[in-house]
Structures are given as C-alpha cells and as structure tokens.
Automatic annotation (TrEMBL):
Record's compositionally biased regions (Low complexity): 29-45
One GO process term, biological-process aspect: ubiquitin-dependent protein catabolic process via the multivesicular body sorting pathway
Subcellular location field: Endosome
The species this protein was found in: Dillenia turbinata
Listed name of the protein: Modifier of rudimentary, Modr
Length: 229
C-alpha cells in the first residue's frame, strides 16, 4: 500500500470509477482482493505486463522503459493516479510530458515540416514542369515532324541512288550507250553514201565511233557474264 500523509487512503478496486474510458485490463479486476498500488496502477495503465500475463511480442515495452515509467509514477499521490485512470485529458497531458513521447512528437513534427516543404517546392516547380511539357509538345509537333520529313527525303534519295548503281541498272545504261554509238556510226555511214561528208572526216569520226562501240560492247559482255555466273 502507498500512503502520502495520514489522510490519504488506499486505492481499492471499488474506488475506481465504473465509467472509466480505460478497458478492464487497464483499471484492474473488481474481483481482486488486493488494493491497487500506484506502481501496479501505473504498470497496468501503460500496458506493463509480466511475461506470464501475455505472450512476448515485438511491441512489448522493454524493462528499461517500464522502469522509467514507474519512476515517473512512483511519486504521485493516490488521487493523482486515480485521476490518470479516470480522466482522459489528465492521462493525455501526462502522456505528452514523457520524454520518449516528446521525442516521437518532435520527430513527427519535423517529418511533417519536411513533407510540407517538399510539397511547396513541388508546387513552385509546377510552372517550370508545365513549360517543359509545352516545349516537348512543340518539339513533337513541329521540329520532330520536320526532322521526320527530312529523314524520309534522305531515305528516298538513298533508294534512288542504290537503284541507280545497281548491277541491272548499270548494264542497262551500258547497253543503251552501246546502242547509241552503233546508231551514230550508222548515221555517219549514210552521210557518206549520200555524199554529205568527205572520206577523210568520215574515216576519222567513224573509227572513233566504232572504237567506242566495241569497247562498250566488251565491257557489257564481261559485266553480264560476271553477274549471271
């Protein structure tokens, strides 16, 4: 039993208000034949149970923390302990005065401030983010379209170049040039028959045309043989 002066009384289960907002496990069992002490009331109100009362769990209070709580409650009077058990506001005021709770509250406040600061910074960057989005949209709709059109033009020119210098295209152009030389030599021969050109100039031009024709013909035959072989 705990006494604080000659006029203080023992704490009995029937002295605890029946309308307390604490559960029965906190305020104690009415059937108990032993009076509650400040230490036992403090242990019950903060959930300090013996290992036999309930199984061990990760959230159980450590012995050092329990000892610290008991140290805070041991000097309180019976009336003060009874008030902690029955008055929610008194209980909360005591709870927030505990150093561990203060530390947790301070940490919570710091995290809240940092979260608000990050939120403000994000809101301040919103116009910049929107501007970047607009620039990306402009690039997609204008610059990207122009670059794609230029790429398509280059692709078309590439296809034309490859087609122009393909083996079949080269053989065709070589045959056309060979036929042109042959036609020019035949036209020059008709001019000689029609006496439109003298023999001297005819021989010189005709020889050059036939030489070009035969050179192209040999190249054509060699290229065609290599591609078909």
């Amino acid at each position: 039993c705990i006494f604080r002066g000659s006029q203080e009384q023992q704490v009995r289960p029937q002295d605890i208000p029946t309308q307390s907002w604490y559960p029965p496990s906190v305020v104690g069992s009415p059937a108990s034949s032993h009076p509650s002490t400040p230490s036992s009331a403090a242990s019950s109100s903060f959930g300090f149970h013996k290992p036999s009362d309930r199984p061990q769990s990760p959230s159980q209070v450590s012995p050092s923390e329990a000892a610290g709580m008991i140290a805070l409650l041991k000097d309180k009077s019976v009336d003060e302990l009874r008030k902690l058990l029955s008055d929610k506001e008194a209980y909360n005021n005591f709870l927030i005065s505990v150093d561990q709770v203060k530390m947790q509250n301070n940490l919570r406040d710091e995290l809240r401030k940092e979260t608000l600061q990050l939120a403000r910074e994000n809101l301040e960057k919103e116009p910049q983010i929107q501007e970047l989005r607009n620039q990306c949209r402009i690039i997609r709709t204008s610059e990207l379209a122009a670059a794609r059109e230029k790429l398509n033009e280059l692709e078309r020119r590439k296809e034309e170049t490859l087609k122009f210098y393909s083996p079949s295209s080269l053989l065709q152009r070589l045959q056309e040039a060979m036929n042109k030389s042959d036609e020019e030599s035949e036209a020059l021969h008709r001019q000689l028959v029609d006496k439109e050109i003298d023999v001297g100039p005819f021989v010189q031009k005709y020889k050059a045309l036939r030489t070009t024709y035969h050179r192209r013909a040999l190249i054509y035959l060699a290229a065609k043989t290599s591609t078909t072989g």
